[in-house]
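From the methods appendix. Each design record in this collection lists the tokenized structure first, followed by the designed amino acid sequence. Records were kept in a plain field format so they could be parsed without special tools. The example shown here is representative of the layout used throughout.

RECORD:
FOLD TOKENS (257 positions):
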């Protein structure tokens, strides 16, 4: 699933090519996850000029000059691809054609991509913009394990399974730690790890795939390495499942319970 590092790069590359262009045609080919009729999407968006593309948590929001917004959540396997003329990419969910002849195909073999017309504002802070004291206050009230709190999107937005593993590895905190048992100095380490891990990952991806609008390899990750037994530093990777999410960590991460 694309997370903040990927989506920030997608946002920049999409905006560079599409902002200022009118959407001349919107084709939605898979309707099962829509909450509003296709006709409403088309009447609200076709003919409007794209003014902005923003990342909001794990979504991209396409803002148009008539006040409407198209929300896109790529879920686990969604991808975006450029095309001209006819889209030949497999498993299309939707196709957006702009006045400059640029087409954007949104594809997903699992058919789980979510398109939203005028999505609601996020109710939680972004992982890269956590207010001072916010995380400590939220964690103090939670009896859940820290992996769950950081991943489920109810406390902070934008990070998922892979990068939460990386953040907790960076902070040297076990994913099995109870959130309310974490000392304030440890929470501060987690907050710093969020910034460090996400910004460094974005730099790495951009350095290797500067033009990408689809998720690329994650071989640079330290501990979330499903096919490996050792971290990049040579530590044994321990594996477990937390709330049906495969979780990777090491014995060197401290457990608070």
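DESIGN:
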């Amino acid at each position: 699933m694309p997370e903040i590092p990927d989506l920030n790069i997608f946002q920049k590359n999409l905006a560079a090519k599409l902002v200022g262009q009118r959407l001349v045609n919107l084709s939605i080919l898979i309707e099962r996850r829509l909450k509003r009729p296709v006709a409403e999407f088309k009447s609200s968006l076709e003919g409007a000029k794209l003014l902005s593309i923003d990342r909001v948590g794990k979504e991209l929001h396409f803002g148009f000059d008539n006040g409407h917004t198209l929300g896109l959540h790529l879920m686990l396997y969604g991808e975006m691809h450029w095309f001209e003329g006819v889209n030949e990419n497999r498993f299309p969910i939707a196709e957006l054609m702009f006045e400059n002849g640029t087409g954007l195909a949104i594809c997903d073999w699992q058919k789980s991509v979510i398109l939203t017309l005028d999505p609601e504002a996020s109710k939680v802070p972004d992982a890269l913009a956590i207010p001072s004291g916010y995380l400590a206050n939220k964690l103090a009230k939670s009896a859940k394990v820290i992996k769950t709190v950081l991943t489920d999107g109810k406390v902070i937005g934008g990070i998922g399974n892979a990068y939460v593993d990386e953040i907790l590895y960076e902070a040297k905190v076990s994913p099995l730690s109870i959130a309310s048992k974490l000392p304030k100095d440890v929470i501060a380490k987690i907050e710093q790890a969020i910034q460090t891990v996400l910004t460094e990952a974005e730099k790495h991806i951009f350095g290797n795939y500067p033009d990408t609008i689809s998720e690329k390899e994650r071989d640079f990750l330290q501990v979330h390495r499903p096919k490996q037994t050792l971290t990049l530093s040579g530590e044994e990777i321990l594996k477990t499942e937390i709330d049906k999410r495969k979780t990777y960590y090491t014995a060197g991460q401290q457990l608070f319970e």
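APPENDIX NOTE: The longest helix spans residues 184-208.
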